[in-house]
Design a protein that fits this description.
This is Diguanylate cyclase (GGDEF) domain-containing protein. The chain has about 280 residues and is an alpha/beta fold. It has 11 helices and 12 strands. Helix 3 runs parallel beside helix 5. The protein binds ligand C2E and calcium ion (3 copies). Ligand C2E binds next to strand 4, helix 3 and strand 8.
């Protein structure tokens, strides 16, 4: 037995050993995946809720595993976050997105801004604004082509530091959005102080739209709050035309979800850029 903190004793059980071994294997697996370029980016369109016009696309990472196939982010992002490897993976995603924007521009396609997810660890630990400024210069991408998605959990820490971090990102000329809004604890006063561009309302609230008046009222309140704060509102996880009709009536600006398209590889995303009108 080993003495743990606060005078408690902890015992290494066989299960615990197995857990540690698994975790180590998985961490090695992630490191190997980073070294051998096994991460790819898929793109999901975001469209104007009234016109159906493509306004931007979200970059979503996938692990192209040699035997497991396409591994979804939920199966490796938590470990990547825990081990700090998310910082490297985040950089891979950012570079892939920048290279893709340039490739689309060279093909003469009307490129829309691409949004990239930022995890709490990237937001606090890394010199994010330096990393982004460097990538924009290196790839010759205009800052207006990039948007960062920050979850409410990024805003939990010391609010002066959060404000400073966001201000330094905004100073680069990129857009910053709040992801999964409604699932965390960001306060109205905090949102008001921060210079944020877009509020992405979590899919769980979109689902509630069809479950009666309460869900609709709730959504309407968030939309008007966001508009008072001068933010664009995006409904996440829109899957059917009934949800879209309600959102249009509520004045929601943009929608994203399977109703428009699932996330697709870059080649398929090129077709969205050409078509422009997606619904
Ligand atoms: P998220 O940022 O909230 O991304 C939206 C997720 O919802 C995506 O899952 C997307 O495929 C899924 N989705 C979109 N529309 C619908 C819909 O209509 N119905 C349903 N049921 N789902 C929908 P995905 O790609 O599996 O990503 C899951 C999460 O992993 C993301 O949630 C994000 O938190 C994280 N993630 C993905 N890529 C990255 C990345 O490059 N960096 C970081 N730090 N996190 C990432
Ligand atoms: Ca997101
Ligand atoms: Ca920083
Ligand atoms: Ca989200």
């Amino acid at each position: 037995a080993k003495r743990a903190g606060k005078g408690r004793l902890s015992f290494y059980t066989p299960q615990l050993t197995e857990e540690i071994v698994n975790r180590t294997n998985n961490e090695q697996g992630l490191r190997h995946a980073i070294k051998s370029n096994q991460f790819i980016v898929h793109y999901q369109p975001r469209v104007n809720a009234l016109t159906g016009e493509l306004v931007s696309m979200e970059a979503l990472v996938r692990w192209l595993h040699p035997t497991r196939g396409l591994v979804p982010p939920m199966e490796f992002i938590p470990l990547a976050e825990e081990t700090g490897l998310i910082v490297e993976i985040g950089e891979i995603v950012l570079h892939q997105v920048c290279a893709q924007i340039v490739a689309w521009q060279q093909d003469g396609l009307p490129v829309v801004p691409i949004s990239v997810n930022v995890s709490p660890r990237q937001f606090t630990d890394s010199d994010l604004e330096v990393e982004i400024a460097t990538a924009l210069t290196r790839f010759q991408v205009a800052p207006s082509m990039l948007e960062l998605e920050i979850t409410e959990s990024c805003m939990l820490q010391d609010s002066a530091k959060v404000a400073e971090e966001i201000a330094s990102l905004k100073a680069l000329g990129i857009r910053v959005s709040v992801d999964d809004f409604g699932t965390g604890y960001s306060s109205l006063s905090q949102l008001q102080r921060l210079d944020l561009d877009v509020l992405k309302i979590d899919r769980s609230f979109t689902i509630e739209l069809e479950n009666g008046k309460h869900g609709v009222d709730f959504f309407r309140t968030i939309v008007s709050m966001a508009h008072v704060l001068d933010m664009q509102v995006v409904a996440e996880g829109v899957e059917n035309p009934a949800q879209l009709r309600i959102l249009q009536a509520l004045g929601c600006d943009e929608i994203q979800g399977y109703f428009v398209s699932r996330p697709v590889p870059a080649e398929a995303a090129s077709a969205f850029l050409q078509r422009k009108m997606l619904i």
